[in-house]
């Protein structure tokens, strides 16, 4: 049984999608804890309602990034994580923290990386006039939103799209994509090797890691 620890900062809809899939599909894993950097994260209540241990490591209590990340790491490691899932965790992590979890820390980013790293990705995609947009699940490395890509989901950008409409279209795909990747990781079918993503031999359909939204 693998231990998953999920880090959130907000509404936690990706976390919820993972919880739901784990329960529905009986993965060889359990969610050992959901940890937030703020007590205000709405997702904490969702996790509690699902019977999952929650914890807040409040950022205000620590003077600098290094001491915060050291405290966070200590809290996480009490749950012996095999996989650390960032699900809307709104902090830039120190290289020390990231290196400690090398090969077992993943993130979902709301764009087709390497395009649109950082914030306001949907607004920037509309402004740039791209026709395709989406979400990326990647291993986390010290450089922001630049780790090896595991899987991507693609949606169209429509001519009259608003930021909210595009965000909702992408989020729907995030909720399909992220649980699928987490499941494959805990099944031992995905790993990081020499800075590259390696898939288990039994997976030879690229479609497993490329999802498309509705283009009709
Ligand atoms: C998602 O769009 C995710 O891609 C990004 O932050 C958002 C989190 O949403 N990293 P939620 O908290 O999972 O609902």
Describe what this molecule looks like in 3D.
With 216 residues, the chain is α/β, with parallel strands linked by helices. It is built from six helices and ten strands, in the order βαβαβαβαβαββαβββ. It has helices at 13-25, 43-49, 65-77, 95-100, 121-128, 163-186, and strands at residues 2-8, 29-36, 54-56, 83-86, 105-109, 132-139, 149-156, 190-193, 196-199, 210-212. It has an eight-stranded mixed sheet with strand order 3-2-1-4-5-6-7-10, with helices on one face. Strands 8-9 form a two-stranded antiparallel sheet. α1 (13-25) runs parallel beside α6. The mean pLDDT is 96. 5-O-phosphono-beta-D-ribofuranosylamine binds at residues 8, 10-15, 43, 87-88, 108-110, 135, 171, 174.
Structure in a nutshell:
The protein has 216 residues and is of the alpha/beta class. The chain has helices at residues 13-25, 43-49, 65-77, 95-100, 121-128, 163-186; strands spanning 2-8, 29-36, 54-56, 83-86, 105-109, 132-139, 149-156, 190-193, 196-199, 210-212. The strands form 2 sheets. An 8-stranded mixed β-sheet has the order 3-2-1-4-5-6-7-10, covered by helices on one side.
